[in-house]
Amino acid sequence: MNESAKSVQAKTAPWVWRLLPILFAMVVLAVMPGFLPEFLQRMMSKFLIFAIFSISYNIVAGYTGLISLGQAAYFGVGGYTVAVLMAHLGIDSLWLTGLAGVSLGALAAAAVGPIVLRVSGMYFLILTFAIGRLGYSLTWNVPFFNVPQGIQGIAGLPRPNIGIPGFHWTELSFYFFVLVVFAIAMFLQYRLSRSPFGHSLEGIREGETRMEALGYNVWLHKYLSFVIGGAFAALAGVLYVYMNRFIEPADFDIMRSFYPMAMVIIGGPATLWGPAVGAAAIVFVEYFSSVIVPQRWPLILGSLFVLAIMFARKGLAVYASDLWSKAGAKLWKR
Amino acid sequence: MEALKLDHVSKRFGGLHVLEDITLSVEEGERVVLIGPNGAGKTTTFNLINGQLPVSSGRIFLFGEDVTRLPVHARAHRGIARSFQISSIYPNLTVLDNAILTAHGLRRSRFGVLRSIDAYPELMEKVQTALDHAGLWEERHEFVKNLAYGEQRRLEIALTLAGDPKLLLLDEPSCGLTRGECGDMIHIINTLPRGITTIVVAHDMDVIFGVAERIIVLFYGKLLADGDPATIQADRQVREIYMGVEEGTERAGAF
Question: In angstroms, what separates the C-alpha of B42 from chain A's closest C-alpha?
Answer without folding.
Answer: 17
